[in-house]
Amino acid sequence: MKRTLAALALLALPTLALADTAVGLKDNMKALGKLYKAIQATVGDRGQNTANADSAGKMVVLFQAVGKQMPDSIAQLPPDQQKAALADFQRLINEEQKLSESLKAAFAAGDNTSAANIVNKMNLDKKEGHDKYNKE
């Protein structure tokens, strides 16, 4: 029993580390990008469903952290514009978090068609967010 609990605790460590908002927004977004690209490349491969569900779960945690961070593009706005821009950024991030939760569930259920549709929606949301808040 002790070994099982210790093993579960070790498995949780990477996810807990991902949730650290002390990690910069750019690093969190890079981690999200890597997870997303890996899922996108294998979304139709049922043999990858377990790994993709795990990756989608990690994305949920990362989006939770990102939602508490402010992009430089918003921080550089005049103070009277920051509140609205941050609310819109958080709306997009919350949508991505919900989609990541749905993606995890789709992979867990073996529904690769739904997973592919969710990945496509996430790609559109990502483009909208990057067009607005990532001017690099």
**What percent strand?**
under 5%
Structural class: mainly alpha
Question: What would you call the shape?
Answer: elongated
Write down how many β-strands occur, each being a DSSP E stretch of 2 or more residues: 0
The averaged pLDDT comes out at 87
Low-confidence segments, ≥5 residues, pLDDT <50? 1-18
Which H/E pattern describes the elements?
A: HHHHHH
Write down the Rg. Answer: 16 Å
The helix tally amounts to 6
The percent of residues in helical segments reads: over 70%
Largest sheet: none
Q: How far do the termini sit from each other?
A: 50 Å
Note down, in words, how this protein is organized.
This protein is mostly helical and 136 residues long. Helix content is 80%, strand content 0%. The longest helix has 30 residues, at 79-108. The model is unreliable at 1-18 (pLDDT under 50).
Lay out the secondary structure:
Blueprint: H1 2-18, H2 25-42, H3 49-66, H4 72-75, H5 79-108, H6 112-133
Helix pairs in contact: 2-3, 3-5, 5-6
Give the key terms:
mainly alpha; 136 residues; 6 helices
Compact description:
With 136 residues, the chain is mainly alpha-helical. The protein is built from six helices and no strands.
